[in-house]
Amino acid sequence: MKKTIQTILAITTSILLTGLGVALFVHANLGSDTLTVFVDGLHRVLNCSYGTASRIYNLIVLVIALIVSRKNIGWATIVYALSVGFTMDYFEKLLQPLQIQSAGMMIRLICVCSGQICFGITYALLIKYRKGMNQIDAISYAIVDKTGISFKWIRTGMDVVLLVSGWLLGGVVGVGSIIAMTTTGVLVDFILNIISKKEKNDEEFANGIS
Fold this sequence. Notes:
With 210 residues, the chain is an all-alpha fold. Helices cover 81% and strands 0% of the residues. The protein is built from 8 helices and no strands.
C-alpha cells in the first residue's frame, strides 16, 4: 500500500513538473525544450493549443512505444500521456501575468534552467518507479537494449531528432533549446544515480537498525 501511494505521488509530481517546465521554457522565450519545440511546431501547423498538440504528440509516440518497448509501458505512461497537456495549459496561463519574457536575461536563463530541472526530475521518477516510462525514454531504453549504448547518449540523440523535427515544423528554437538538447540525457542519468544511492543508503541504514 505504501509503495502504491509513493508511486501515485511520483506520477502526480511528474505530471505537474512537466507542465511547469514547459511553461517556464515557453515564457522565458529563449527557445523551448526539445519536446516543446516539437509540440510548438504541431501547435503552429495544426493551429491548436499547446495542450492539444501535446496530447496528439503523446498519443502518437505512445503507439510507437507500445510497438517497440511494450515492457516499459505501464498505466503511468497512459495517465501521463493523457493528462500532461492539461497541466501545460494550466501553468502556461498561470505564468502569463508575470511577463517573464520581458524580464532580464538572467531571470529568463534561471527559468530555463529551472524548467530543465523539472524535466530531469520528471523523467527520472517515471523511469525509477517502473510503472510506465515517458514514451521517449521507453523508446530510448529499447534502443539501449539493442545497441548497448549508454542511455544518456541515446536520449540525447532522441532530443536532437525532436529539436530538428520541431524546428522544421516551425517551432521556436533558441539557447534554451540547445541547453535542453545537450543536458536532458545527462541530467536524467545523474538524478537516477542520486535516487539509487539514496535508496541504497536508506536500505543500509534500515538493516543496521534491525
